[in-house]
Amino acid sequence: xxxxIIFPGQPIFGQLIALIPRQYISxxxxxxxxxxxxxxxxxxxxxxxxxYAAMSGGTSIRGVVLGLLAAxxxxxxxxxxxxxxxxxxxxxxxxxxSAVFGDxxxxxxxxxxxxxxxxxxxxxxxERLIIIDSTTISLFKEILKAAGRNPANGKRKGGIKSHxxxxxxxxxPKMVCYSASAKNDGPFVxxxxxxxxxxxxxxxxxxxxxxxxxxxxxxxxxxxxxKEGALYEVIQDIPISKLSDARVILDQQIKxxxxxxxxxxxxxxxxxxxxxxxxxxxxxxxxxxxxxELIAKIYKRRWQIELLFKRLKHNFQLKYFLGDNVNAIEIxxxxxxxxxxxYKVVLKGTKRxxxxxxxxxxIRQHLFTYIDLPTFLNDPEQALRDRNSGKASQSTQQLKxx
Length: 402
Hints:
This protein is an alpha+beta fold. It is built from 13 helices and eleven strands.
């Protein structure tokens, strides 16, 4: 298991930044040549600045610069030699490739995967569950083409769509890619890098018959909802187990034909009746070895990614962007994802059960407070009292969260 090291002699923000192995940034800077033509504001400085913007909830470059200036000599702990200027940050957000930040997120995902994985799903069907969906983030102007018609007033905003895949046993994105919000979701499901035995769960927006056939041939399973107006041929009814939920009213084997290629694929169609709080649901899947009730429960797990979208949008600044170009917007979203991953790593090591929003708000207010982060999170009020009364340990030894 990866070791998570906290340095109590630094402010909280410094302790969080220390969770990013600096070697990763150096390797990626060399890979992408992202430090060429830069004299002062190097890739490491850029990462620290933009992660600070994400954690502090900065709504403008001016606000980010003033926040760092207010920290004074505390930025020495971050390894930054000088305070960045607004024009420097703006130019870097425009010119330094966002792929550097995307690759850094993926490196951190791999590094902390042993820490973040949920041992509760080990050995169960949920261990191979990959949830796929997209969310649209509105932009302040039409930088990227938005979906839908032009509004009556003629004014139109753009939108960037984030296509995300998560493992059910992990609560952070595994795959992330971006497109204009007007783009169709279908092509992006292929980027989830599914392998034999995986179970993909997604909504009807990713419906693709030829892909269903290819997955079936490769031993990749999926569960989705039937698209409105979908054409299919019923081959036979499958007997419903007496042990199944009474709301499972229909289980069928169907044949679906791709109109473009003429290829056919045999699927399973399950109808689950609604109740007072839900509507009737119709599922399509290529899983024939599980009972219908379990298929419905697998699809219900898709709600996990909706909660992720809500958590990201409510706790990180994704309404105001620090640049008016696609590269700057992608950098800001990547840094929000990096901050979210670091928060989840820290929460894994705390004894106290924190609501994510409360945790993010606490960190936002104490980014430059000098206090041992694990002790602070286990009992914030007592930790601050001890610090103010001089009882807190002055040790600068490394503390391990795990």
